[in-house]
Amino acid sequence: MGSRLLNLRAALVLGAVLLGSSPALAEAVLHRGNAGEPQTLDQAHTSINIEEFILKDLYEGLTIYDAAGKIIPGAAETWDLSDDGLTYTFKLRADAKWSDGSPVTAEDFVFSYQRVEDPKTAAGYANILYPIKNAEKVNKGEMKPEELGIKAVDEKTVEITLERPTPFFLELLAHQTALPVSKASVEKNGTDFVKPGVMVSNGAFKLVSHVPNDNLVVEKNPSYWDAANVKLDKVVFYPIDDQAASVRRFEAKEMDLVYNFSADQIDRLRGAYGDQVHVAPALATYYYVFDTRQEPYSDVRVRRALSMAVDRDFLAKEIYSGAQIPAYSMVPPGIDTYGDPSKADFADMSQLDREDKAIELMKEAGYGDGGKPLKIEIRYNTNPNHERVATAVADMWKNTFKADVSLVNLDVSSHYAYLQEGGKFNVARAGWSADYADAENFLALNLSANKTFNYGHYENPEYDALMKKSYDERDPVARSKDMHEAEAMLMKDQPVAPFMTSADLWLVSGRVKGWSDNAANQHLSRFLSISE
Question: Which of 357, 359, 372 is nearest to 404 (CA)?
Fold first, then answer.
């Protein structure tokens, strides 16, 4: 009997040891390549998707995107819309908490939205919330933040009043700018509220550490209302903008996800990794912008000539291996409420005819071969694909106009910071991924009042008037017509030269479960899991 008891005890001990070393109980860690170092982790100052990916793991807005890229309830469990389409009433989840255990309140959202619109905050993306009543006036200093159309009805009820019915408002609320901050934390810590060890967040994860240009670590937030269904214990973000290095780390199984690998690797990677290579069509436009503040780019003939001389088919097929499609409109196809976008009037011409017309326009403007020398500097953010595009475009402009073209590049954060802060340039690479599935999101970039994203400082009162008319229009068909007219005007003036409709390129390890390609490019870690 004593021998049997001893053997039973030994078996139990051995079982415990084996169980303790079981992969099933090992820490579930997702390693995410993130294509660049974030400029900020402050909702009020974010502008690019490599920040969005991190922020949406840390915080949760009133609405969120699910794994398929569809809008679902987030911190708000339910909402109602008034019959006139002007007032939303959101009921926050009773168990919505901050990572310090304190409740997420309606007042937190009021404080957060007022903070974004307060001109003292200087939020670059404040316009995303302009549909809220008085938001634009508050942001321009014409009204007080307290007059913003948002109020706390009670601790768990948020009421938002709009300037006008806005069919895409629920999508706006899922944007990173609309993510809440803890009022108590910001008031106590000031700008330090974003630091590891200080940050208080309400999302599925909380910030643990951040070593700039090395890694950023978040771990599961036990106070999150849906923590029981979050499968990952930790997510490590790697801000690597060196695409070749990212692919090597993926191949070495050091990273589970890679965002924006080099397109010329698609065929090789598909051969080696099959369906781990994801090419997902996106609501996104790859374009060049001209600085209209200075000659010769203030001349519409020069801008049109330079745009016409670019062989978009070559860029899409040869540089991106067919992962992108040629574009002649600012708005990408695929937006249901808009239909086919308004293309540039040279879209249907052959490339040879375009080049002939471009040479005529450039001569007419007095530049190029036989005229004033054309010296062009192309700015782009560091990335092999963007470098190849810039090199190809430079060759096209050299061959067509005998232009002297040089290239300059900066890391992604510095590049966009330079453009957003009004730095002067000749021509710059830019890209725009839809914040919400509406043409207005692309067309608003070139409004004269858009000081952050109108990189080329385009000013056209007629364009502004058409867009204003679209904002005031209740009928969706008439609204679409107004925006089509505005886009046609934009494509005639060419302050921006759309080159391609983009696709999102991801490498997704076979051990990652729950991944779903979607046009919104939304991939919250809370919906992912790891299996060996």
Answer: 372
